[in-house]
Amino acid sequence: MIRKILIANRGEIALRIVRACRELGIRTLAVYSEADEQSLHVQLADEAICIGPAPSSESYLRADRILSAAELADVDAIHPGYGFLSENAEFAEQCESCDITFIGPKSETIRQMGHKARARETVSKAGVPIIPGSDGPVDDEKIAVKTAQKIGFPVIIKAVSGGGGRGMRIAHNAATFAKEFQSARLEAEKAFGDGSLYIEKYLEDPRHIEFQILADQHGNTIHLGERDCSVQRRHQKVIEESPSPFLDKSLRNRMGKAAIKAALAADYVNAGTIEFLVDAKGNFYFIEMNTRIQVEHGVTEEATGIDLIKEQIQIASGNRLSFSQKDISLTKHAIECRICAENPAKGFIPSPGTIDLYYAPGGHGVRVDSHVYGGYTVSPHYDSMICKLITYGRTRKIALDRMYRALSEYLIRGIDTNVEFVKAVILDPAFRQGEATTSYVEEFLARAPKELFEKKPKE
Ligand code: MV4
Prior knowledge:
Layout: E1 4-7, H1 11-24, E2 27-33, H2 40-44, E3 47-52, H3 63-73, E4 77-79, H4 89-97, E5 101-102, H5 107-114, H6 116-125, H7 141-151, E6 155-159, E7 169-171, H8 174-192, E8 197-201, E9 207-215, E10 221-233, E11 236-242, H9 249-265, E12 270-278, E13 284-290, H10 297-304, H11 308-316, E14 333-340, E15 342-343, E16 349-350, E17 353-354, E18 357-359, E19 366-370, E20 377-378, E21 385-393, H12 396-408, E22 411-413, H13 419-427, H14 429-432, H15 440-447
Parallel strand pairs: 1-2, 1-4, 2-3, 4-5
Antiparallel strand pairs: 6-7, 6-8, 9-10, 9-12, 10-11, 11-14, 12-13, 14-21, 15-16, 17-20, 18-22, 19-21
Helix pairs in contact: 4-5, 6-9, 7-8, 12-13
The structure holds ligand MV4.
């Protein structure tokens, strides 16, 4: 039985996990860095232990300190949230050997799916479509060029230990391939300590659509529909929604079945996400699997009515899923804007500092997942996201109109934010019509007037 959970994270996701535990009657232990002493997750958890100085490398990434805190407070389980140690197979393994339940898949699954070339091979063998590319990693440059020529240009070079877009390079012809290959290798070595690369045919202008999976320890694996995450900037998602305006019933069904196949092939347990790229004709291809709860999970929660964090804990406790595939539908339309402390007019540079006035939106169909408040200081040490604003309703139009209304009542003073930028996107006819692909933000920035992203002077 799980009676006490250590939350190995910070910010809004730590608070989100505290809330789920409260409703389940489970005690919580927060761990925090010196920079987060005043954080809400620390104040609202039942217990809290400081695990080090502000830099993540000395606190939230220190498996040894987190496991010490776990032993000291005698917790039964650890929830890793997203980022930090959430996809670290070694950490999951250490939890397993300490007899502490890691709330997530088996360490072996994290390792298998963390190797992006092996993940491709695993799901492909199970009959899930993948993008034409290399069979596994290609480390020799000469062989890599030949492989690229066989696939046909343009190709995309990706890091085997990467994911989420870092260490990727596009090569348009054989002449530029070597240079791109070398710089991808250097970047991958620096970022992941592994310069191993693989190659795929480059798809122009795809949509990024991902499926939420839940799998219990008894072999029940279901999907909870999709999230369209095409609106991203430099591989950071900005807006996510469910259902996708691009999918019809038939495509959703086929993609959902493929997502379940991929999860089964990975012997998956707990909550996970299968990422696909979808072309204009509706062809879809697996790109990678994320073995964690994702930032945008709330969109699926509001569209389906299912609490994914509670389900993660129930699954980790060994309980069976209390619903089956036929019980799941996207009954509402939900949309999320990631609100960040950054300045869109200055190339989106981070804007840490103290929030001296704060009023968050509310009302019917509005959900605010945030750890900040008036007087809170946004630290330069962590991600700049300060809030996930989610609105939902019966139709996409209701959710979008509600989002614009909610954004319009958001008051944040003292730091710069992207509120005006996302407002402009929500109003943009191309976005409204559901036409956004992964090139959308770049195109929008090229044609949008600069004033749009600046704070409106007070009337
Ligand atoms: C691609 C792709 C096109 N073709 N793979 C980016 C994040 C990571 N999860 C996979 N990503 C992509 N993989 C193939 N074969 C396009 C993306 C992609 C992207 C690429 C360049 C610039 C922005 C992008 C935004 C979303 C997805």
